[in-house]
Amino acid sequence: MKKRTPISEIMTSDVIALNKTDDLEQAEKLFKAHNIRHIPVVSGDQIIGMLSYTDLLRISFADAADDYAVDVESVVYNMFTIEQVMAKNLVSVSSSTTIKEVAQLLAKKEFHALPVVDNNVLVGIVTTTDLINYLINQF
Fold first, then answer.
1. Which residue from 35, 61, 76, 85 has the highest number of Cβ atoms inside 10 Å of its Cβ?
2. May I ask the CATH architecture of the domain 7-137?
3. Domain ranges of the chain
């Protein structure tokens, strides 16, 4: 295992992002269609927040199985904007940050994804799943 491997080696660079003007129904569709749990929120090419699937679950019945829940979700989703629900106080890393540094940061914090930002532009996202897959590949 290399000690100075940059996060750019394992991050997702083809980032699925939401615009701050998108709605929460669009967010849910992206979460489900791409089987992901975190989506950066951008204004232009600047990251302004991070939305997690857990954020949606907190305000809705997104996991509910009956048809009634779909109607309730629509009403609830229309009550909030992405900007109201997303995490705004972001911690980000650069693409040259080492995998070890990212692992240490994620181990200390209560979140599971970090935006990767170079020169104030979103260039990727790294998640705890990326780190686990990296470790698995080492064995």
1. 85
2. Roll (3.10)
3. 7-137
